[in-house]
Amino acid sequence: MKNVTERTRNPFGLRPPFDRTRPDERTAVFGYGDANADFHLIGNYPGVHGGRESGVPFTETEAGERVQSIVREVGFAAGSWSEPTVENLFCSYRHMCCLPPGETPDESTYDDLERYFDAELRAINAHILLPVGERATDHVLRSYTTQRDRLELDMATLHGQEIRGRGFMVVPIRDPTVWEDTEADAIVSRLEAILGRDYRQTKGVATRVG
């Protein structure tokens, strides 16, 4: 059994390459959870999925808390909603840096943060990647599978599907703000099914952080 680190917040001490926030605001929302996890939940950026106040991904916003409710139901999280106790799940964002209110990331800032996201993902070395929303799903499918060119990026269709990757299995999650009545249940059922079998993937050697 791997033992990467017992640190819950920003376990590898990442430092963002830029800071566009005011001195009294949070610079970034770093990865959070069980660094030895088999499941890695991947969101977009703090302005969408939350954490600007708590520093914890998938908190504070409607979208973030809807996702958190799913992982709670499966048994990955418990306790406080702003700083949950997490087991077998690591949570992070494709774009960790906070931006001034009303601003959204552009392609150059996603590119600036790519090496940080990739290094952390490979250091966690989870078996199941759970990208939330179109942008995170597109990136994960392009970077960690050979399937992107064969798949239409239709999140309603991809939601809850199992897609084999290069040493990972990817289960996309549609943006929770547009979930229909059965879509939350579909993810819960999929995760429970995965947990009920041997889900381990053939892994390569993780890259070093730093």
UniProtKB/TrEMBL annotation:
Region forming the signal peptide: none
One annotated GO biological process: DNA repair
Superkingdom, taxonomy of origin: Archaea
Domain spans labelled Uracil-DNA glycosylase-like: 30-147
Keywords in alphabetical order: 4Fe-4S, DNA damage, DNA repair, Hydrolase, Iron, Iron-sulfur, Metal-binding
Alphabetical list of InterPro entries matching this protein: UDG_Type-4/5 (IPR051536), Uracil-DNA_glycosylase-like (IPR005122), Uracil-DNA_glycosylase-like_sf (IPR036895)
A GO molecular function held by the record: deaminated base DNA N-glycosylase activity
Cross-referenced Pfam families: UDG (PF03167)
Region (Disordered) residue spans: 1-20
Name used for this protein in its record: Uracil-DNA glycosylase
